[in-house]
Amino acid sequence: MTPSGSPAWTRSASFAYYGGDTSKRNFYGQGVVDPQTDVSAEEHARMCADLEAVARTMPFAEITYKNNDTSPAVPTIEIVYMQTGVVLVSYPGDTPPSGFPSAARNGTGDVTFTFASSYTDPYGVSGAFSVKHVGADAQSSSAVRAVPEIVTSTTVRVRCFTGGVAVGEARVTLSVS
Amino acid sequence: MAFGAFAPMPLRLGGATDEGWSPEQHARTAADLLAAKFVAPFAWMTFTKSGATVTIHDYYGQNGAGLASAPTATVIGTGVTAFDWTSGFVDAYGVPYALKVRKARVTPHGTSELFGTYALNYSSHAFAIFTWDSTDTAADCKATVRIW
Which residues of A touch B109 (CB under 8 A)? Predict the structure, then answer.
């Protein structure tokens, strides 16, 4: 069985993918008989419209990582929430679990993340992915700023600064969509 | 309980796993959808401000994905751009909604230190984005804005 439409990260979500139809109605106008067992056409319509809305704007990935600059090494990816899965056990940026992004160190406070150009949903449906939007926030009690750059459609570079100077050992949350 | 042609809307929860939708599965769908609705951004927008020109590169919004759904930009000054939607939006079923920005997050893009701030209801505009360099001086740049 193949689901309708394309995976959410393609941003092509349509209420019709979920069975929505502006003419859908309850059979012979008979609404819910028992709300404990029935789902009405109106309730289903709300679910389809809401799902279309959130599927358009959910982040593709929320990644928390730490730069390793004192003893220069690849960044440590600490937590990954992605539309395709979650990783709660940290991993070195150069040995990502299958399906998760890698990261390389460019210099002090400066790393590059690499994503795949296509991902697959639980039903085996693949959808193209390209980075369109990025957000980055440093986790710090001092004035550390994380500045991202979309380098290619699948790579994002993030630099960390304080006072205009590159800063090491920063922990950053990166949002990608 | 049969489904499809034998039992059109309302859906009757239950049935075999390969044909039906159990109350437990429906409950999980409803709870997860609600969770996503609570936290999903209203929109992501990436734009570049360069002098008197603002280019919106991409827009993903609950009101639509694509530039046609993006707000209109107005240049205020160096590092300052205001945005407005000309109207509310109507969902796939024709239900209208007002567009009201309640908060935002701004991330400038670049190769040097930059940061961003925002203001709601700024100078008769829905919201405005401000971008700054490391000396706290207003600076034009590319930026991603998340809106809730």
Answer: 134, 147-150
